[in-house]
Amino acid sequence: MELRNKTAIITGAGKGIGKAIAESLAREGVNLGLLARTAADLDELKNTLSEQHGVQVFTAAADVSNSQEARAAVSELAASLGHVDILINNAGTASFGKLAEMDPEQWEQIIRVNLMGAYYVTHELLPAMIEQGSGDIINIASTAGERGFATGSAYCASKFALLGMTEALMQEVRKSNIRVTALNPSTVNTPLAVNAGLPIGDEDRMLQPEDVAELVLAGLKLPSRVVLKTAGIWTNNPQ
Ligand SMILES: NC(=O)c1ccc[n+]([C@@H]2O[C@H](COP(=O)([O-])OP(=O)(O)OC[C@H]3O[C@@H](n4cnc5c(N)ncnc54)[C@H](OP(=O)(O)O)[C@@H]3O)[C@@H](O)[C@H]2O)c1
């Protein structure tokens, strides 16, 4: 499917995977609404993408874990874009610790960002997609949503739940010509992975944010009758 002149909102677009998805979509001629908390990241990306690819880029600094803030930001971006064809729920946070030892506030915050954030943004934008009778929603989940591991109770719970929401919503809206997809990367070379102390090892052999962005593009370009329900993304070059 041709992506030129389509519109997309990407959460967590300032760094890592979200930034790589923004770059890939801009290269295809997609007009963008970018959201993250750090305005400076978004402004810099906006300048680069509009200059290099001639696309329209709008930005909104907001915290997706805050319902009011997230809803106001995405509805402003949607109004600037005119309509929204593609939503990428990518904003996410990760930290790890034993359940008994992790601060309850930190545990809850992971759920608020990774699950509730995706819900708030989707809930705000979905009615217009249903009304227009088309749309793509891609949720960036994780292999941590497929199998639990020690110290991952909050992160795994958030991603298992995001996968559940994805599959249920996919069943709900496919008759409205809306595709809902989850992508499950294993460790990707981003600030999140480095800051969370995930094993990085040889950078050349691990997944890069651009690899996830490639799969996003591939999913979006499938004929509209085809929905990629869930796709795991692994390095083919393990250390
Ligand atoms: N890297 C991995 O190994 C890996 C593997 C599997 C899945 N994932 C998932 O991929 C997604 C992107 O991760 P990444 O590795 O690219 O992370 P990253 O490098 O830390 O980038 C995350 C982006 O999300 C934004 N963000 C974080 N919290 C936010 C909030 N509360 N509200 C709005 N924006 C927020 C950050 O900007 P601000 O801080 O300025 O808000 C940043 O732009 C996450 O959902 C993550 O769980 C990552």
UniProtKB/TrEMBL annotation:
GO MF, one annotated term: oxidoreductase activity, acting on the CH-OH group of donors, NAD or NADP as acceptor
Output a single Gene Ontology CC term carried by this record.
Answer: membrane
Q: Which CDD domains match?
A: SDR_c (cd05233)
Describe the location of the Ketoreductase domain by residue ranges.
Answer: 6-181
Pfam families given for it? adh_short
Q: Which residues form a coiled coil?
A: none
Q: Which UniProt keywords apply?
A: Oxidoreductase
Which PANTHER family does this UniProt record tie to the protein? DEHYDROGENASE/REDUCTASE SDR FAMILY MEMBER 7B (PTHR44196), DEHYDROGENASE_REDUCTASE SDR FAMILY MEMBER 7B (PTHR44196:SF1)
UniProt similarity note: Belongs to the short-chain dehydrogenases/reductases (SDR) family.
Q: What is this protein called?
A: 3-ketoacyl-ACP reductase
